[in-house]
Amino acid sequence: MSRTLLTGNGAAAWGARLAQIEYLPAFPITPQTEIIETISAWIDRGDMACRMVTMDSEHSMITAAGAAAATGVRTFTATSSQGLLYGMEMLYAVAGWRVPLVLVNVSRALAAPVTLEPDHNDVLAARDSGFLQIHCATCQEVVDTMLLAYRLSEDKRVRLPVIVNLDGYYLSFTREPVELPTLDIASRFLPAPTIRTDQIQASQPTSQGIAVLGGSQYSYFRYEQHLAALASLSVYEELGREYGELTGRFYSALELYQSEDADTVFVMIGSFATKAKEAVDRLREIDLKVGLVRLCLVRPFPAAELAAALAGKKGVAVIDQNLSMGQGGILFHELTSVLYNRPDRPRVITSYVGGLGGRDISLEDFRGIAEETAQAAKNGHAPPPRLLYTAAELTQMRGLQEIAKTQKNSRGHTL
Amino acid sequence: MSPLNKNTPPLGQHHLLAGGTPACAGCGGLENIKIIYDILGPKTIFVNAAGCMTLLSVYPFTPFPGSWLYTSMASAPAGAQGVRDALDILLAKKRIPADEDLQVVVLTGDGAAGGMGLSATSGAMDRNLDFIYLCYDNEGYGNTGYQFSAATPHGAKTTTSIMGNPGYKKDLFAIWAAHRPAYVATICGAEPHDLARKVAKLKNIKGPKMLIALAPCPTNWHFEPSATIQIGKLAVQSGHWPLKEYENGRVTHTKIPKPSDERPQVEEYLCRQGRFSHLFTPQRNETVLAEIQAKVDRYWQEVNDHYAG
């Protein structure tokens, strides 16, 4: 099998191409833009039969994408960060339309302050929208997940749009060797789009997204959506196996790395989990029995799978690359809530927030987390949630603040 | 300028749009939709923006024998883009036959059209989208109880301008025409022949076809529902609501009111509406009334000068 070097963005574009997308409403934003540039060039060179239209905003882009999907074409779109939030209203709407659609989000931390580097506050802001969420850790996963996402989204048991998430910079602009499925293999798994019985056309008048009167009817449609999202978990497992049989690459709701015999387990999502894997290997060399559980699916939340993977562990450290102000790490709270009623729950679950705005999580960070969690498991007391930040970083920040102060004062004198 | 000619389609008593909708009695917006829908036919999808007409389709009922897609307040033209592009793709790939095609119509109020919807509308015109855009202009945020919008005329009382709107109506016609779309027109349900002629004409035009319909609103303008047509006619006859169209870079007025000393004064239009009652009682506000009249007179003077020149 030949492998080719691709960035995460290149992998997403290839995934869209192999999925034989027909329509791409687009709007540029860093770090996503390379995806639409790549596809645009393919269309212009005649390598790909797809209609691309540049919209006036992400809000319009997601509207056009949902409307086209409702009308029956295989549709793709992509954004990041501010763009995802600008289109947020339409994420909820399109999910309510129950149409198949795949949206790639290239994670980038949210303003203010403004930055281009990643964390997960953007994509987690969409966690209640009704879009399913699949989080990738490698460029290979990005290509494969695109095909899985379309199958999942178009499955009659699901009929929900899907966000495929990859981290800005760490994946979007990082080249990794990727094995591209041939179009033949890809279309054996995901056949070319055909007519759908629920698409809008003249002989099939449809009212989509209409009003209801009263909470009871509203609840019915919302519960239906929730039940479909829950049901999508087993559909994803089924598809992950089917894809594995075709390509040798199997996918599942969770990735387990050295977690089975581990005393302490890191729980993470996204590309920073590859740093955790490296840390697991290093820390095992110094006899810390650590492992990693990575959530590939965030919506639906793989509650039973997580409970099984973490059953009887001494310590679990949740490392959140996001921050809910006044609450803490989002993943930590989601995980503890599903484990609380389990008799075999881990002895302690600790919470760490790190990697905000692309801040590195170093081997030393992982070591500190593992040791503190192991110690907490021993004495039965979880430490308060930690915000990862070193003394050296603070010293550097103080230096910048001094410069800012000097600038402000000197400006004041000259005016 | 005769309203009846061979291009005017016949207007029926029975409408494609079913009766008994949740719209208010005497809704001027609905009057426009009924006539337009009759001309376009059921192979039409209405892509709706949040506004009064959102409540036309309430589960499990719809007055439309054709399709309906509710989007959001800001992005209905983008929804139209998605539907149009998808239909074109399906037709090109022969996944659907030609008779499955749909006419795509954006349905939006003035609040969305002149405010948050303007970006998506501008974009659709930039891209030369083949669609019809219908703004039912009831001159305020009607569905939320009538707060002033960018389309509210000067002096009108709304729930957020109880002393009368200090602002002036935004000129959407000019803003749209500046994009040089295929077609722009103002219409009014009280002038059905003018309306029908324009819609019959735009049916055969490719590209963005933009309509602003005056939608007299008994509920918020405060007049009896039975007076909707009378109010609409007075709006046109007094010159307050010019009927016009834009095509190929030219603006043409399709119904020119009588000269200023012969046509109804604007206050005949205003005094029938509760939203202007503070201009008449307890005492007449001569300043504002004169200002409104002068603005209308100046408009038509400029039109006359233009045609004369």
Description:
- The complex is a heterodimer of chains A (415) and B (309).
- Chain A has 415 residues and is an alpha/beta fold.
- Chain A has 14 helices and 16 strands.
- In chain A, strands 10-12-11-14-15-16 form a six-stranded mixed β-sheet, sandwiched between helices. A five-stranded mixed β-sheet of chain A has the order 4-5-7-6-13, sandwiched between helices.
- In chain A, helix 1 packs across helix 2 and helix 3 runs parallel beside helix 5.
- Chain A starts with a strand and ends with a helix.
- The model of chain B has no long low-confidence stretch (mean pLDDT 95).
- The radius of gyration of chain B is 19 Å and the shape is globular.
- Chain B is built from ten helices and eight strands.
- In chain B, strand 7 and strand 8 form a beta hairpin.
- At the A-B interface, helix 3, helix 5 and strand 9 of A face strand 2, helix 2 and helix 4 of B.
- Greatest chain-chain interface? A-B, 42 and 48 residues
Q: Into which percentage range does the β-strand content of chain A fall?
A: 15-25%
Q: Which superfamily, in CATH terms, is the homologous superfamily of chain B?
A: Thiamin diphosphate (ThDP)-binding fold, Pyr/PP domains
> CATH class of the largest domain in chain A, anyone?
Alpha Beta
Q: Note the total helix count of chain B.
A: 10
Number of strands of chain B: 8
Rg estimate of chain B, integer Å:
19 Å
Total number of distinct structural domains of chain B: 1
Give a short account of the largest sheet of chain A.
6 strands, mixed
- Please state the structural category of chain A: alpha/beta
Q: Strand arrangement, largest sheet of chain A?
A: 10-12-11-14-15-16
Largest sheet of chain B: 8 strands, mixed
Q: Give the helix proportion of chain B (percent range).
A: 25-40%
The CATH architecture category of the largest domain in chain A equals 3-Layer(aba) Sandwich
